[in-house]
Amino acid sequence: MKITDVRAIQPVGENSPADWRTSLGQILVAIDTDSGITGYGVGGGGLAGMHVVKTVLRDLLLGRNPEEISQLWDEMYQATLAFGRKGIAVMALSGVDLALWDLRGKHEQQPLVSLLGGKPGKKIPTYRTVWDPQELQTISGHAGYKLHLGKVAAPGQRELMISAIEQARSLIGPDPLLMVDAWMKWDVESTIAISQEIASSRIEWIEEPLSPDDLAGYRLLKEQSAVPIAGGEHEFTSAAFGQLIEEQLHSVLQPDVCWCGGLTELIKIYTMANKAGLRVCPHRGCEIWALHAIAALDPDPLAETGRPWMTWVAGQPEVKEGTIELSDRPGFGLLFDEQNLFLVN
C-alpha cells in the first residue's frame, strides 16, 4: 500500500464560533492510497496548517508506505523542525498522523481501540464543559462538569469566580465531579488564594491557571495549591509533556490529540504518565480522535464533551445517559461526505 495523495481542507460547520477556534483550530486531512482506502484526520492550524500539509508534508509522504507511522512521524517532525516544534506546524502534523492511523485501522479492518489493546463497546463516563453556572440548571446525567471561567478569569475578579464555582457546586449537588478552567488567565498568587477558598467545594482540578510556559509558576502551585492542577491542552509533543511528567507539575495531563502531535504522541504521553502514576484526561476526549486511546489505555477513563459545531463529522458516537462508547467500525469509524466537502472547498 502506497500513499497517492494528501489533501487538506477547512470545513466550517453550523454555529462554528467566529474566532480562532474556527479560523485556526481545525482542518480536515485526507490521505489516499493505491489500495483505494482513504484515511481521515482532524488537525489544526487553519490556512497556515493546510499550507504545511499540502507542501512540506505531502511531498514527504507521496509514494510512502502509510503503515510506517512512527518513522513517518519522525520524518515529518524533522521536516518542520526549523519552523515548527510547537504551534501550527505540529497542529497540522497531528491531522496527518491521525489520518495515517485511520488508514491502518481500515487496512487491518479493525477499530483502533482494538489495535491499541482495548475493546469497543466499553461505556466511558463523560463530563461536560459549561461557560455559565446557570447552564447547569438544564443539564444532568454526566459524571462531572467543568466550569470554564475564561470570560471572567482575571486575578482581580476573585470574588466573582469563587461565587460562580460555589453556585455550580450547589446546582449539581454533592456527588458529580466539578472542575474549574481558568484558561491561562490567573497568576500564582490568585490561584493559591482561590484554591484555598474553593477547596471545600470539592474541586477535582483547576485547569490551566497559568501560561504553559510558566513552569516556575507551576512548580510553586505543585507545592502550594489546595486543589490539584491540570494542564497540557496547549502543549505540544511528548517531549514537552516529558518534562511536565518528570517534575509532576500537573496532577492531570490534558493533551489535545488534534494539536499535540496526533495519536502517535498521545500514546507516548499515556505510557509515560501511567508509569509515573499521573492521570491523563485528553482535551475534548469525547471526540473520536482521542476516544480510542481513552478506551484502550486509560485506567480511569473520563471523556470531555467535544465541539458541537463539528457537524461535518459523521459517525461520531453520541453521549447517552452520561456515557459514550465506541463502535466496532474499522479505523476511527467516521464517515465524510467527499462531494460536499472536498469538491466544494
Automatic annotation (TrEMBL):
Single Gene Ontology MF annotation: magnesium ion binding
Residues of the Mandelate racemase/muconate lactonizing enzyme C-terminal domain: 133-228
Cofactor(s) listed: Mg(2+)
Gene Ontology BP annotations: amino acid catabolic process; carbohydrate catabolic process
EC number in record: 4.2.1.90
EC class (word): lyase
Entries under CDD domains matching the protein: MR_like
InterPro entries: Enolase-like_C_sf, Enolase-like_N, Enolase_C-like, Mandel_Rmase/mucon_lact_enz_CS, Mandelate_racemase_C, Mandelate_racemase_N_dom, RHMD-like
Protein name from the UniProt record: L-rhamnonate dehydratase
Organism annotation: Gimesia fumaroli
